[in-house]
Sequence to fold (716 residues):
Amino acid sequence: MMTNILDKIKSVFKPGKLGTFGGVFTPDVLTILGVIMYLRLGWVVGNAGLLGAIAIIVLAKLITISTGLSMASITTNIKIGAGGAYSIITRSLGLEAGGSVGIPFYVSQTLSAALYIVGFTEGWILIFPAHSPLVVGVAAWALLLGISSVSANFAIKIQYVIMAIIGVSIISFFLTPEPAVSKITLVGKFEDAGFWKVFAIFFPAVTGIMAGANLSGDLKNPRKAIPQGTLSAIGVTFIIYVALAWALAAYATPDELRSNEMIMAEKALSSKLVIFGLLAATFSSALGSMIGAPRILQALGTQKTVPFGKFFAKRTSKGEPVRAVLFTAVIALAALLLGNLNALASLITMFFLITYGVLNLVVFIQQSMNIISFRPTFKIPRFVSLFGGVGSFVIMFLINPIFSVVAFLTIIGLYIYLAKKGLTANFGDIRGGMFLVLAEKASQLASRFPRHQIAWKPDVLLPIEEPNIWAASLLFIKNLVAPSGSLFAFSVKSENIEETKKDLNALLEPLVKEKIYINSAVLEDYDFLHGAKLVMQILHGRALRPNMLFLTLGSNDRKDPLIHNLIDEAERFELGVVILRQHKRMAFGLQKNINLWLRDKSPNWNLAILLSLQLQLNWGGTINLVTVAEKEEDEERLLNFLNRLSEQTRLPSQVDFHVLKGNFKDAVKTAPRADINIFGLAEDPSFQAMRERELPELTASSCLFVKDSGFENASV
Fold:
């Protein structure tokens, strides 16, 4: 017999996986039926009346029901790991988003344990007023640490006893010997506070639905246990709260309810049972936080989201995160000794609500993406997750706008910090797909509207024959494109495709690091021109397509026929043309000053002006508007032309006008020194090739030759 008793005692302490009732339903119920139920529900009914109180309970429960349904849906779709909501958010939006929400959520759970210990201490002092609050608080903390250090299984079995005590205390209140009031107040006068203030005070009563999910790593079957346990807990506690609201309204006057926070104890069949229930509720809530918070920290440590991640990730041979438990207990004790926890109560609630809101939005995003991988066995309408997400954020600001802003700024700061750490996970997430879906939706919307010159930005198409030996300036291309433009680079090969891809990616890597939006491809084709035509043809039909072709001109004329053909194709596909002839010695000088050469009767100047402005944006120098007057009497007219053009195109103040006299070739030699000279592209191919190779030497700078597509307008 003694052996049987010892075996039963050992089984209590024996670690093991938890089921739905013990692992989810019990922690959720005990956290929801807490100190608000005992000390504040009567005050809510006294101010709002029965119908007003029920409205507040229903509204608060709608948020948690939506969150519970969202959690039920997503947990039947993914294999949830340790950390509950942290795991769900991480596996959906990545480690950065999971960590930025998970770290404050962990801190909130830890500080909640301290708050609940304070509540327990106050209840204890009601029974034993001679006892020291500090001694009671520390003793409760030590007991909680001891229970949570043994095992979650043991803690849950302790909570069965606590749930029985709470149940008996509630029954004791329903069996009140007090006479009913003559008339139930259905709608209160809200004498102490308005509707939303009363709602804000009540809402923390329903925020315990994550208590079970936090134990996800200790559950036998999280996919089954979390949905069933969470939704059952929400339903049962909803019935209890509505029934208690009716009983309070039926057996106490509004004045009694508003002025006496111990009204439940006074009206109960046994006041001591209600006080014991209050002690049990606060103790169980503290125990739930002391069990759940370390498991969130352990999950954060496993993913190296927090400093000393390896240390906190360690579990004992029995699977208990003892290091995380001890650290959490120390933080809770420090908060307990420092006091002023009421000042943190609102901020704690904010982090709970952010977690609920993000979890709902995770589900809404995946529902909206219509991706095959999101096929939960428990399906909910989209409006449920949307209501849960938006409702959580709205309620945050109704409760406390200042703490809401602080909470959001904290989340954003943590996200930026974690993004810089370069975290990597051994699982995928939906971020890339989410942004692709957004891009596709935006592309569909953009395709409904005609492309207009007012939205012009430099989107460059860059053909590269040999990526491994290509010698043009990437820095110049960056200055031509950044910050809002894009680059589509391609090569055409009939063999060694994979090797060419690697060379092309290696070539473009510096621009990728500069955050330039880049696409690249290697086309398999027997002829470069034929492949380039196919690229232009395919891209022409896209909403996000290049608007100019960038070419480079070498020292010899061997590639000139190819360049001329590409220019013709560019005109066919409505692309502007930019040809760079880089000076071998000067390159781009100090990357400051720009000479823009213009002719008063030429229509080919819009793209040249736009590119000059783009370069000045990145170089910060001066634009020299330069033209040539072959006759002295044309000088004033051309100066007026440059002035009008400057006003028409709203050029910045760092613009100088230069009217040079004589023929073009002589004028080039007297032009102001610049780091690049921009010319219109000559129409005659033979003159074009000669001039493009001669001008860099005459100007002692690199030269850019530009041809409008007809779809640019520098005046808008």
